[in-house]
């Protein structure tokens, strides 16, 4: 049974930082592209960032480029999202997801999802 468990969300002031973690189990973690998505109230789930199985390639949404950093530790079956210079518009539930194959930004191409962690950025 595959499980993805996010942690690290919370309330932070604008300009602050948070580090999210996603611990995976029940899958061959090192074979999967891992992605982070977010969903704000009343909005569709949107792509944030993804990292290939080896960590050699990363992909960022324009809205977070230069502020967020994704990394992974295949020995720990964990992917991280370091979020810096946070803005109120970053407020959302953040989800990690896992997929095989070459794509990275389409939510419906991800096979497994975590339950999400709330990130709230106050102005």
How would you describe what is shown here?
The chain is mostly beta strands and 123 residues long. 0% of the residues lie in helices and 50% in strands. The protein has no helices and 11 strands. The chain has strands spanning 3-7, 10-13, 18-25, 33-39, 46-51, 58-60, 68-73, 78-83, 92-99, 112-113, 117-122. The strands form 2 sheets. Strands 2, 4, 5, 6, 9, 10 and 11 form a 7-stranded mixed sheet that branches. A 4-stranded antiparallel sheet has the order 1-3-8-7, with no helix packed on it. Strand 5 and strand 6 (58-60) form a beta hairpin. It is globular, with a radius of gyration of 13 Å. The N and C termini lie far apart (40 Å). The mean pLDDT is 97.
Key traits:
single chain; 123 residues; mainly beta; four-stranded antiparallel β-sheet; globular
Query: What pattern of helices and strands is seen along the backbone?
Result: EEEEEEEEEEE
| Rg from Cα | 13 Å
Largest sheet: 7 strands, mixed
Terminus-to-terminus distance: 40 Å
Uncertain parts: none
Find the count of extended strands (DSSP E, 2+ residues): 11
| Average pLDDT rating | 97
Q: Which structural class do the helices and strands define?
A: mainly beta
Tally of separate helices: 0
Q: Please indicate the percent range of residues in DSSP E strands (runs of 2 or more).
A: over 45%
Tertiary shape: globular
């Amino acid at each position: 049974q595959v499980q993805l468990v996010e942690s690290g969300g919370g309330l932070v002031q604008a300009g602050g930082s948070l580090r999210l973690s996603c611990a995976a189990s029940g899958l061959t973690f090192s074979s999967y592209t891992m992605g982070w998505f977010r969903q704000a109230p009343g909005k569709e789930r949107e792509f944030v960032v993804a990292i290939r199985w080896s960590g050699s390639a990363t992909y960022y949404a324009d809205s977070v480029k230069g502020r967020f950093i994704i990394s992974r530790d295949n020995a720990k079956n964990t992917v991280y999202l370091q979020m810096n210079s946070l803005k109120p518009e970053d407020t959302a539930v953040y989800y990690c997801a896992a997929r095989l194959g070459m794509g990275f930004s389409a939510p419906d191409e991800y096979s497994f999802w975590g339950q999400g962690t709330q990130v709230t950025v106050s102005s």
